[in-house]
Design a protein that fits this description.
three-stranded antiparallel beta sheet, Fumarase C, Chain B, domain 1, mainly alpha, elongated
Length: 496
Protein backbone atom coordinates (compact mmCIF):
# COMPACT_ATOMS: atom_id res chain seq x y z
CA UNK A 1 0.00 0.00 0.00
CA UNK A 2 1.48 3.38 -0.99
CA UNK A 3 1.57 6.34 1.35
CA UNK A 4 -1.34 7.93 -0.51
CA UNK A 5 -3.55 4.88 -0.13
CA UNK A 6 -3.25 5.13 3.62
CA UNK A 7 -6.29 6.37 5.55
CA UNK A 8 -6.17 9.76 7.18
CA UNK A 9 -4.56 9.56 10.61
CA UNK A 10 -6.82 12.21 12.17
CA UNK A 11 -9.91 14.31 11.49
CA UNK A 12 -10.50 18.01 12.06
CA UNK A 13 -13.81 19.81 11.61
CA UNK A 14 -14.15 23.56 11.05
CA UNK A 15 -15.22 25.66 13.01
CA UNK A 16 -13.64 23.85 15.95
CA UNK A 17 -10.70 25.69 17.49
CA UNK A 18 -7.46 24.92 15.65
CA UNK A 19 -4.83 24.35 18.34
CA UNK A 20 -1.05 24.44 17.92
CA UNK A 21 -1.00 20.72 18.72
CA UNK A 22 -3.45 20.00 15.90
CA UNK A 23 -0.92 21.39 13.41
CA UNK A 24 1.28 18.35 14.05
CA UNK A 25 -1.50 16.13 12.73
CA UNK A 26 -0.98 17.65 9.28
CA UNK A 27 2.37 15.85 9.02
CA UNK A 28 0.48 12.79 7.80
CA UNK A 29 -2.74 12.33 5.84
CA UNK A 30 -5.41 14.42 7.56
CA UNK A 31 -9.16 14.54 7.00
CA UNK A 32 -10.51 18.09 7.23
CA UNK A 33 -14.19 18.87 6.87
CA UNK A 34 -16.33 21.99 6.99
CA UNK A 35 -19.70 22.10 8.68
CA UNK A 36 -22.54 22.98 6.31
CA UNK A 37 -22.88 26.49 7.72
CA UNK A 38 -19.19 27.15 6.96
CA UNK A 39 -19.55 25.86 3.40
CA UNK A 40 -22.50 28.19 2.87
CA UNK A 41 -20.56 31.10 4.34
CA UNK A 42 -17.64 30.56 1.96
CA UNK A 43 -19.97 30.26 -1.04
CA UNK A 44 -22.01 33.33 -0.06
CA UNK A 45 -18.88 35.42 0.38
CA UNK A 46 -17.63 34.30 -3.04
CA UNK A 47 -20.97 35.32 -4.58
CA UNK A 48 -20.85 38.65 -2.78
CA UNK A 49 -17.36 39.37 -4.17
CA UNK A 50 -18.60 38.86 -7.71
CA UNK A 51 -21.69 40.97 -7.04
CA UNK A 52 -19.40 43.79 -5.90
CA UNK A 53 -17.30 43.42 -9.05
CA UNK A 54 -20.40 43.45 -11.21
CA UNK A 55 -21.43 46.70 -9.54
CA UNK A 56 -18.09 48.21 -10.50
CA UNK A 57 -16.69 48.53 -6.99
CA UNK A 58 -12.95 48.99 -6.63
CA UNK A 59 -11.50 45.98 -4.80
CA UNK A 60 -7.82 45.63 -4.08
CA UNK A 61 -6.16 42.78 -5.91
CA UNK A 62 -9.23 42.03 -8.01
CA UNK A 63 -9.52 45.26 -9.99
CA UNK A 64 -6.14 46.80 -9.12
CA UNK A 65 -2.45 46.08 -9.28
CA UNK A 66 -0.70 44.76 -6.22
CA UNK A 67 1.20 46.55 -3.45
CA UNK A 68 2.40 50.02 -4.46
CA UNK A 69 0.85 49.48 -7.91
CA UNK A 70 -2.64 49.66 -6.37
CA UNK A 71 -3.24 52.85 -8.34
CA UNK A 72 -3.00 50.95 -11.62
CA UNK A 73 -5.51 48.58 -13.13
CA UNK A 74 -4.81 44.87 -12.89
CA UNK A 75 -5.38 42.21 -15.56
CA UNK A 76 -8.90 42.24 -16.94
CA UNK A 77 -9.40 38.48 -16.86
CA UNK A 78 -9.59 37.06 -13.31
CA UNK A 79 -7.49 34.00 -14.16
CA UNK A 80 -4.84 36.26 -15.68
CA UNK A 81 -4.92 38.41 -12.54
CA UNK A 82 -4.19 35.32 -10.45
CA UNK A 83 -1.22 34.52 -12.68
CA UNK A 84 -0.17 38.19 -12.50
CA UNK A 85 0.12 37.88 -8.72
CA UNK A 86 1.82 34.50 -8.49
CA UNK A 87 4.39 35.16 -11.20
CA UNK A 88 5.93 38.18 -9.44
CA UNK A 89 5.90 36.46 -6.03
CA UNK A 90 7.61 33.21 -7.08
CA UNK A 91 10.94 34.53 -5.79
CA UNK A 92 11.87 32.39 -2.75
CA UNK A 93 15.41 31.22 -2.17
CA UNK A 94 17.25 28.82 0.10
CA UNK A 95 16.50 25.34 1.42
CA UNK A 96 12.99 23.98 1.58
CA UNK A 97 11.01 24.26 4.76
CA UNK A 98 10.30 20.86 6.35
CA UNK A 99 7.39 19.18 4.55
CA UNK A 100 5.48 18.88 7.84
CA UNK A 101 5.69 22.67 8.24
CA UNK A 102 4.53 23.24 4.65
CA UNK A 103 1.51 21.02 5.25
CA UNK A 104 0.76 22.75 8.55
CA UNK A 105 0.72 26.04 6.64
CA UNK A 106 -1.89 24.61 4.25
CA UNK A 107 -4.00 23.57 7.23
CA UNK A 108 -3.69 27.05 8.74
CA UNK A 109 -4.79 28.56 5.40
CA UNK A 110 -7.84 26.29 5.22
CA UNK A 111 -8.86 27.55 8.63
CA UNK A 112 -8.63 31.23 7.73
CA UNK A 113 -10.39 30.79 4.38
CA UNK A 114 -13.18 28.71 5.94
CA UNK A 115 -14.40 31.76 7.86
CA UNK A 116 -15.95 32.99 4.63
CA UNK A 117 -14.40 36.45 4.66
CA UNK A 118 -11.96 36.16 1.74
CA UNK A 119 -14.21 35.75 -1.30
CA UNK A 120 -12.43 32.56 -2.27
CA UNK A 121 -14.21 29.84 -4.22
CA UNK A 122 -15.33 26.86 -2.16
CA UNK A 123 -13.55 24.64 -4.71
CA UNK A 124 -10.22 26.13 -3.58
CA UNK A 125 -10.90 25.28 0.07
CA UNK A 126 -11.93 21.79 -1.03
CA UNK A 127 -8.69 21.43 -3.02
CA UNK A 128 -6.63 22.26 0.06
CA UNK A 129 -8.65 19.75 2.07
CA UNK A 130 -8.07 17.08 -0.59
CA UNK A 131 -4.34 17.82 -0.52
CA UNK A 132 -4.17 17.40 3.25
CA UNK A 133 -5.82 13.98 2.91
CA UNK A 134 -2.71 12.80 1.01
CA UNK A 135 1.01 12.97 1.80
CA UNK A 136 1.61 15.77 -0.75
CA UNK A 137 3.62 18.75 0.56
CA UNK A 138 4.65 21.78 -1.49
CA UNK A 139 8.35 22.63 -1.63
CA UNK A 140 8.53 26.09 -0.01
CA UNK A 141 11.87 27.96 0.05
CA UNK A 142 12.80 29.36 3.44
CA UNK A 143 13.73 32.91 2.39
CA UNK A 144 11.73 35.61 0.67
CA UNK A 145 9.17 36.94 3.14
CA UNK A 146 9.28 40.04 5.34
CA UNK A 147 6.05 38.93 7.01
CA UNK A 148 4.24 42.21 6.38
CA UNK A 149 1.53 41.01 3.99
CA UNK A 150 1.94 37.72 5.71
CA UNK A 151 3.79 35.05 3.78
CA UNK A 152 3.48 36.16 0.17
CA UNK A 153 6.50 34.46 -1.38
CA UNK A 154 6.33 31.21 0.63
CA UNK A 155 2.64 30.76 -0.07
CA UNK A 156 3.11 31.66 -3.73
CA UNK A 157 5.50 28.70 -4.03
CA UNK A 158 2.96 26.52 -2.22
CA UNK A 159 0.25 27.53 -4.68
CA UNK A 160 2.55 26.92 -7.64
CA UNK A 161 3.17 23.38 -6.38
CA UNK A 162 -0.58 22.83 -6.07
CA UNK A 163 -0.84 23.93 -9.70
CA UNK A 164 1.77 21.35 -10.67
CA UNK A 165 4.63 23.82 -11.08
CA UNK A 166 7.90 23.86 -9.16
CA UNK A 167 8.60 21.02 -6.77
CA UNK A 168 6.82 19.11 -4.04
CA UNK A 169 7.17 16.15 -1.74
CA UNK A 170 5.22 12.93 -1.79
CA UNK A 171 5.92 11.50 1.61
CA UNK A 172 9.63 12.15 2.08
CA UNK A 173 10.54 12.16 -1.61
CA UNK A 174 11.13 15.45 -3.43
CA UNK A 175 10.09 15.53 -7.08
CA UNK A 176 8.57 17.81 -9.73
CA UNK A 177 5.22 19.04 -8.46
CA UNK A 178 3.22 17.65 -11.37
CA UNK A 179 4.57 14.17 -10.63
CA UNK A 180 3.74 14.55 -6.94
CA UNK A 181 0.19 15.63 -7.76
CA UNK A 182 -0.26 12.64 -10.04
CA UNK A 183 1.17 10.29 -7.43
CA UNK A 184 -1.20 11.69 -4.82
CA UNK A 185 -4.19 11.45 -7.16
CA UNK A 186 -4.74 15.22 -7.07
CA UNK A 187 -5.82 17.47 -9.92
CA UNK A 188 -3.83 20.68 -10.49
CA UNK A 189 -5.38 23.65 -8.71
CA UNK A 190 -7.27 26.13 -10.89
CA UNK A 191 -7.74 29.72 -9.72
CA UNK A 192 -10.09 32.54 -10.59
CA UNK A 193 -11.27 35.82 -9.08
CA UNK A 194 -9.16 36.70 -6.08
CA UNK A 195 -8.41 33.04 -5.25
CA UNK A 196 -4.65 33.51 -5.63
CA UNK A 197 -4.55 36.56 -3.37
CA UNK A 198 -6.68 34.82 -0.76
CA UNK A 199 -4.22 31.92 -0.71
CA UNK A 200 -1.03 33.96 -0.28
CA UNK A 201 -2.16 37.07 1.62
CA UNK A 202 -1.81 36.10 5.27
CA UNK A 203 0.19 34.65 8.13
CA UNK A 204 -0.28 30.93 7.51
CA UNK A 205 3.40 29.95 7.31
CA UNK A 206 4.18 32.22 10.26
CA UNK A 207 1.39 30.83 12.42
CA UNK A 208 2.17 27.24 11.43
CA UNK A 209 5.88 27.53 12.25
CA UNK A 210 5.15 29.27 15.54
CA UNK A 211 2.50 26.71 16.45
CA UNK A 212 4.80 23.77 15.72
CA UNK A 213 7.58 25.44 17.72
CA UNK A 214 5.22 25.90 20.64
CA UNK A 215 4.16 22.26 20.73
CA UNK A 216 7.78 21.08 20.75
CA UNK A 217 8.80 23.62 23.38
CA UNK A 218 5.88 22.62 25.59
CA UNK A 219 7.13 19.04 25.57
CA UNK A 220 10.69 20.28 26.11
CA UNK A 221 9.53 22.14 29.20
CA UNK A 222 8.22 18.85 30.57
CA UNK A 223 11.47 17.16 29.57
CA UNK A 224 13.53 19.83 31.33
CA UNK A 225 11.56 19.30 34.53
CA UNK A 226 11.93 15.51 34.32
CA UNK A 227 15.68 15.72 33.65
CA UNK A 228 16.21 18.20 36.48
CA UNK A 229 14.43 15.87 38.89
CA UNK A 230 16.42 12.86 37.64
CA UNK A 231 19.68 14.75 38.01
CA UNK A 232 18.85 15.86 41.57
CA UNK A 233 17.96 12.27 42.38
CA UNK A 234 21.08 10.69 40.83
CA UNK A 235 23.35 13.20 42.59
CA UNK A 236 21.48 12.86 45.89
CA UNK A 237 20.71 16.58 46.20
CA UNK A 238 18.73 18.09 49.04
CA UNK A 239 15.24 19.15 48.01
CA UNK A 240 14.90 22.37 50.02
CA UNK A 241 14.86 24.30 46.74
CA UNK A 242 11.34 23.08 45.91
CA UNK A 243 9.57 23.53 49.27
CA UNK A 244 6.21 25.29 48.75
CA UNK A 245 6.92 28.12 51.20
CA UNK A 246 9.55 29.55 48.85
CA UNK A 247 7.09 29.90 46.01
CA UNK A 248 4.23 31.18 48.12
CA UNK A 249 6.57 34.03 49.04
CA UNK A 250 7.77 34.56 45.47
CA UNK A 251 4.33 35.16 44.00
CA UNK A 252 4.82 33.82 40.44
CA UNK A 253 2.13 31.22 39.77
CA UNK A 254 3.86 29.49 36.86
CA UNK A 255 7.06 29.15 38.86
CA UNK A 256 5.10 27.75 41.79
CA UNK A 257 3.53 25.19 39.46
CA UNK A 258 6.88 24.10 38.07
CA UNK A 259 8.24 23.74 41.62
CA UNK A 260 5.19 21.66 42.49
CA UNK A 261 5.84 19.34 39.54
CA UNK A 262 9.46 18.93 40.65
CA UNK A 263 8.32 18.34 44.21
CA UNK A 264 5.94 15.64 43.02
CA UNK A 265 8.65 13.98 40.94
CA UNK A 266 10.97 14.04 43.97
CA UNK A 267 8.32 13.05 46.53
CA UNK A 268 10.03 9.76 47.48
CA UNK A 269 13.57 11.08 47.02
CA UNK A 270 16.24 10.16 49.59
CA UNK A 271 18.99 12.82 49.76
CA UNK A 272 22.61 11.70 49.90
CA UNK A 273 24.96 12.54 52.72
CA UNK A 274 27.63 14.43 50.79
CA UNK A 275 25.80 17.15 48.85
CA UNK A 276 26.27 20.80 49.88
CA UNK A 277 23.61 22.86 51.62
CA UNK A 278 22.97 24.81 48.43
CA UNK A 279 23.29 23.51 44.88
CA UNK A 280 24.52 25.61 41.93
CA UNK A 281 21.86 27.71 40.24
CA UNK A 282 21.40 25.20 37.41
CA UNK A 283 19.64 23.03 39.99
CA UNK A 284 18.57 25.41 42.77
CA UNK A 285 17.06 27.99 40.41
CA UNK A 286 15.73 25.55 37.84
CA UNK A 287 12.12 26.01 39.06
CA UNK A 288 12.45 29.75 38.56
CA UNK A 289 13.90 29.44 35.06
CA UNK A 290 11.37 26.81 34.02
CA UNK A 291 8.53 28.77 35.60
CA UNK A 292 9.52 31.82 33.57
CA UNK A 293 9.61 29.60 30.47
CA UNK A 294 6.11 28.36 31.28
CA UNK A 295 4.86 31.95 31.53
CA UNK A 296 6.38 32.81 28.15
CA UNK A 297 4.91 29.74 26.48
CA UNK A 298 1.50 30.43 28.02
CA UNK A 299 1.52 33.88 26.44
CA UNK A 300 2.74 32.49 23.12
CA UNK A 301 -0.03 29.89 23.14
CA UNK A 302 -2.69 32.57 23.42
CA UNK A 303 -1.20 34.64 20.61
CA UNK A 304 -0.64 31.73 18.23
CA UNK A 305 -4.05 30.20 18.90
CA UNK A 306 -5.73 33.55 18.24
CA UNK A 307 -3.85 33.87 14.96
CA UNK A 308 -4.66 30.35 13.80
CA UNK A 309 -8.36 30.95 14.40
CA UNK A 310 -8.59 34.44 12.97
CA UNK A 311 -8.72 35.78 9.43
CA UNK A 312 -5.42 37.10 8.03
CA UNK A 313 -6.28 38.49 4.61
CA UNK A 314 -7.00 41.76 2.84
CA UNK A 315 -9.55 42.93 1.90
CA UNK A 316 -12.24 41.19 3.94
CA UNK A 317 -15.86 40.83 2.91
CA UNK A 318 -18.93 41.08 5.15
CA UNK A 319 -21.94 40.29 2.95
CA UNK A 320 -24.40 40.54 5.84
CA UNK A 321 -23.41 44.20 6.29
CA UNK A 322 -22.59 44.99 2.66
CA UNK A 323 -19.05 45.93 3.72
CA UNK A 324 -15.77 45.45 1.89
CA UNK A 325 -13.04 46.37 4.37
CA UNK A 326 -9.49 47.16 3.25
CA UNK A 327 -6.98 46.90 6.08
CA UNK A 328 -3.92 45.07 7.34
CA UNK A 329 -4.94 41.81 9.05
CA UNK A 330 -2.03 40.14 7.27
CA UNK A 331 0.52 42.11 9.34
CA UNK A 332 2.00 39.40 11.53
CA UNK A 333 3.43 41.49 14.37
CA UNK A 334 1.63 39.62 17.13
CA UNK A 335 3.07 36.23 16.21
CA UNK A 336 6.44 37.84 15.41
CA UNK A 337 6.76 39.07 19.00
CA UNK A 338 5.57 35.74 20.40
CA UNK A 339 7.96 33.77 18.16
CA UNK A 340 10.94 35.85 19.25
CA UNK A 341 9.90 35.29 22.86
CA UNK A 342 9.86 31.55 22.17
CA UNK A 343 13.35 31.73 20.65
CA UNK A 344 14.71 33.50 23.71
CA UNK A 345 12.91 31.06 26.00
CA UNK A 346 14.26 28.06 24.11
CA UNK A 347 17.78 29.46 24.30
CA UNK A 348 17.67 29.91 28.05
CA UNK A 349 16.31 26.38 28.42
CA UNK A 350 19.24 25.31 26.23
CA UNK A 351 21.61 27.16 28.55
CA UNK A 352 20.11 25.26 31.48
CA UNK A 353 20.57 21.86 29.82
CA UNK A 354 24.16 22.66 28.83
CA UNK A 355 25.05 23.91 32.32
CA UNK A 356 23.46 20.87 33.96
CA UNK A 357 25.51 18.69 31.61
CA UNK A 358 28.65 20.59 32.58
CA UNK A 359 27.91 20.10 36.29
CA UNK A 360 27.33 16.39 35.75
CA UNK A 361 30.73 15.74 34.14
CA UNK A 362 32.79 17.73 36.69
CA UNK A 363 34.33 15.56 39.48
CA UNK A 364 34.39 18.59 41.80
CA UNK A 365 30.61 18.96 41.60
CA UNK A 366 29.26 15.53 40.64
CA UNK A 367 30.20 13.70 43.81
CA UNK A 368 33.59 12.46 42.64
CA UNK A 369 32.58 10.62 39.49
CA UNK A 370 35.26 10.23 36.83
CA UNK A 371 36.04 13.27 34.64
CA UNK A 372 33.66 13.55 31.66
CA UNK A 373 32.05 10.37 32.98
CA UNK A 374 34.71 8.17 31.39
CA UNK A 375 34.69 4.51 32.43
CA UNK A 376 38.51 4.35 32.35
CA UNK A 377 39.77 7.92 31.86
CA UNK A 378 42.17 8.07 28.96
CA UNK A 379 41.16 4.64 27.68
CA UNK A 380 37.80 6.12 26.86
CA UNK A 381 36.50 9.67 26.98
CA UNK A 382 32.97 9.26 28.23
CA UNK A 383 30.70 12.09 27.13
CA UNK A 384 33.52 14.50 26.35
CA UNK A 385 32.50 14.72 22.71
CA UNK A 386 28.82 15.02 23.63
CA UNK A 387 29.62 18.09 25.72
CA UNK A 388 31.65 19.65 22.94
CA UNK A 389 28.75 19.25 20.55
CA UNK A 390 26.35 20.61 23.16
CA UNK A 391 28.51 23.71 23.51
CA UNK A 392 28.30 24.17 19.75
CA UNK A 393 24.53 23.80 19.81
CA UNK A 394 23.98 26.29 22.61
CA UNK A 395 26.25 28.83 20.88
CA UNK A 396 24.15 28.44 17.73
CA UNK A 397 20.96 28.99 19.70
CA UNK A 398 22.37 32.16 21.25
CA UNK A 399 23.23 33.58 17.85
CA UNK A 400 19.78 32.72 16.51
CA UNK A 401 18.01 34.34 19.47
CA UNK A 402 18.47 37.87 18.10
CA UNK A 403 14.87 39.15 17.74
CA UNK A 404 13.58 39.48 14.19
CA UNK A 405 10.36 41.27 15.11
CA UNK A 406 11.94 44.72 15.43
CA UNK A 407 14.33 44.47 12.46
CA UNK A 408 11.97 46.48 10.26
CA UNK A 409 13.29 47.54 6.86
CA UNK A 410 11.17 49.58 4.44
CA UNK A 411 10.53 47.81 1.15
CA UNK A 412 7.98 47.40 -1.65
CA UNK A 413 8.38 50.99 -2.94
CA UNK A 414 7.69 52.18 0.63
CA UNK A 415 4.23 50.61 0.56
CA UNK A 416 5.55 48.21 3.20
CA UNK A 417 7.40 50.93 5.09
CA UNK A 418 7.28 49.04 8.39
CA UNK A 419 7.42 45.24 8.52
CA UNK A 420 7.41 42.67 11.37
CA UNK A 421 9.54 39.83 9.91
CA UNK A 422 7.15 37.40 11.54
CA UNK A 423 7.93 34.63 9.07
CA UNK A 424 11.63 34.70 9.92
CA UNK A 425 10.88 34.95 13.64
CA UNK A 426 8.58 31.93 13.54
CA UNK A 427 10.86 29.77 11.38
CA UNK A 428 13.72 30.58 13.75
CA UNK A 429 11.60 29.61 16.77
CA UNK A 430 10.83 26.32 15.04
CA UNK A 431 14.55 25.69 14.49
CA UNK A 432 15.35 26.68 18.08
CA UNK A 433 12.83 24.20 19.40
CA UNK A 434 14.38 21.41 17.35
CA UNK A 435 17.88 22.31 18.54
CA UNK A 436 16.80 22.38 22.18
CA UNK A 437 15.68 18.77 21.83
CA UNK A 438 19.25 17.78 20.98
CA UNK A 439 20.64 19.58 24.02
CA UNK A 440 18.19 17.80 26.25
CA UNK A 441 19.01 14.52 24.54
CA UNK A 442 22.68 15.21 25.33
CA UNK A 443 21.88 15.72 29.00
CA UNK A 444 19.79 12.54 29.08
CA UNK A 445 22.69 10.53 27.59
CA UNK A 446 25.04 11.96 30.21
CA UNK A 447 22.66 11.00 33.03
CA UNK A 448 22.58 7.42 31.78
CA UNK A 449 26.38 7.46 31.54
CA UNK A 450 26.69 8.89 35.07
CA UNK A 451 24.81 5.94 36.51
CA UNK A 452 26.88 3.57 34.40
CA UNK A 453 30.14 4.91 35.89
CA UNK A 454 29.08 4.92 39.52
CA UNK A 455 26.39 7.45 40.33
CA UNK A 456 23.62 6.00 42.39
CA UNK A 457 20.47 4.74 40.73
CA UNK A 458 17.41 6.88 41.27
CA UNK A 459 15.61 6.54 44.57
CA UNK A 460 12.33 7.91 43.20
CA UNK A 461 9.80 5.91 41.24
CA UNK A 462 9.61 8.71 38.68
CA UNK A 463 13.37 8.83 38.19
CA UNK A 464 13.68 5.06 38.03
CA UNK A 465 11.00 4.90 35.33
CA UNK A 466 12.72 7.55 33.23
CA UNK A 467 16.16 5.98 33.56
CA UNK A 468 14.86 2.50 32.80
CA UNK A 469 13.25 3.82 29.63
CA UNK A 470 16.42 5.57 28.50
CA UNK A 471 18.98 2.86 29.27
CA UNK A 472 17.93 0.13 26.81
CA UNK A 473 17.25 2.66 24.07
CA UNK A 474 20.81 4.01 24.14
CA UNK A 475 22.67 1.06 22.68
CA UNK A 476 26.32 1.07 23.86
CA UNK A 477 27.63 0.24 20.38
CA UNK A 478 25.80 3.19 18.77
CA UNK A 479 27.67 6.41 18.02
CA UNK A 480 27.12 9.10 20.60
CA UNK A 481 25.33 11.24 18.01
CA UNK A 482 22.75 8.51 17.46
CA UNK A 483 22.26 8.07 21.20
CA UNK A 484 21.62 11.79 21.61
CA UNK A 485 19.00 11.79 18.85
CA UNK A 486 17.35 8.65 20.22
CA UNK A 487 17.21 10.18 23.70
CA UNK A 488 15.73 13.38 22.27
CA UNK A 489 13.02 11.36 20.54
CA UNK A 490 12.23 9.49 23.74
CA UNK A 491 11.95 12.73 25.71
CA UNK A 492 9.74 14.21 22.99
CA UNK A 493 7.32 11.31 23.18
CA UNK A 494 4.92 10.13 25.84
CA UNK A 495 7.77 8.83 28.00
CA UNK A 496 7.70 11.63 30.55
Amino acid sequence: MSVDQLPATATLVFPATLTPEALEQAAGPLAVSLEETAQKSVAQCHDYLHLCLAEGREIYGATTGFGPLVGFAGQRQPADQCENLLFHLEVGQGPDLPPALARAALLARVWTLAHGRSGVALSVVDALRATLATSFAPAIPEYGSVGASGDLAPMAHAVRALQGRGHAYLGAVRMPADEALAGAGLAPLTLNGRDALALVNGTSVTAAAAGLALTVLTRSLNAATALTALMADVLGCRTDFVVPELYEALGHDDTARQAAVLRERLADHRPGADRPLQEPYSLRCAPHLLGAAASSLRHARQVVTDDLNGVSDNPLFFPERDVVAHGGNFFGQQVAFAADLMSVTATQMGNLAERQLDLLIDPHRNGGLNPVLAEVPGHDHGVQGVQLAATSLVARMRRRAMPASMQSLPTNHHNQDVVPFGTQAAITAHEQARTLRLLQGSLAVALVQAVKVGARRPTTADGARLLEALEPALAPDSPWAVRVRDAADLLDGALI
